[in-house]
């Protein structure tokens, strides 16, 4: 793919995201979603591998279905209320349809089936875009309409996402699939709090994006696609793999790392809303995810795979320091002390 094509597609992604998150009209928001979808498909299929073509086809069909539901729900709402404003979602069937459409776009359970397969067929940089940037426009629509959405449906999908995201990631050996189920689990945490404190959802999304970007870029620099590759990559880049291990533990939500902050604040907010039982359940369910994060961290720094004594060792080589990865890793690890600066709401 030529640099000009990559630049055009990247600018289209930025344009589509900007249109969606800044629009007040349903049609412009839908147009932004469509621009994003059309811009990411060539990036998914750029390798021309059958798996990549399959992933691009699945992504197109799923996103087209979800976009049609968004347009249908907004049209139904405009028919009943005479309003095309995003914040004026008053028709209950339209609310239900929109919640379903956004859940499909985000990959929330039970509409998660496409997400791990698409990530597995994409390159690591494209998988990073699918896990972070492509989640922002649907999340923005959820935030704008959070006061109108069905809280019971959102709560159910959030609990299922946290449970299934952790459970289905346990037996995976492909790093992209593990991070896909990690994304599903984190989206569950964001969704469960959105009707009570939307700003907290946004904070959780930003920190998740930060940590996930650091992990994907680290794995991309060592071309790590499987756990077996992760086991041997530390001999070539020991410092990078040590930072990767700490970032994985941060994504798992272990204190005193950055990833502990959103989970701590979400549990605190649920307790304030007299939902201590829910907070306890999702805390226990997050232990499932902790297991595969620990397995990734263990593979990245501690052990070597079985090998014969006459196998040539992989020696470390001097590589230039990647400033972007270094900055993202530091932010992914050290932002927890800034938590007192976050304004509290009662």
UniProtKB/TrEMBL annotation:
It is a multi-pass membrane protein. Keywords: Electron transport, Membrane, Mitochondrion, Mitochondrion inner membrane, NAD, Respiratory chain, Signal, Translocase, Transmembrane, Transmembrane helix, Transport, Ubiquinone. This is NADH-ubiquinone oxidoreductase chain 2. Pfam families: NADH_dehy_S2_C, Proton_antipo_M. InterPro entries: Complex_I_Subunit_2, NADH_DH_su2_C, NADH_UbQ_OxRdtase_chain2, ND/Mrp_TM. It comes from Cacatua moluccensis (Salmon-crested cockatoo). The chain crosses the membrane at residues 56-76, 96-115, 152-171, 178-196, 202-219, 240-261, 281-304, 324-342. One of its GO terms (molecular function) is NADH dehydrogenase (ubiquinone) activity. Core subunit of the mitochondrial membrane respiratory chain NADH dehydrogenase (Complex I) which catalyzes electron transfer from NADH through the respiratory chain, using ubiquinone as an electron acceptor. Essential for the catalytic activity and assembly of complex I. It comes from the Eukaryota.
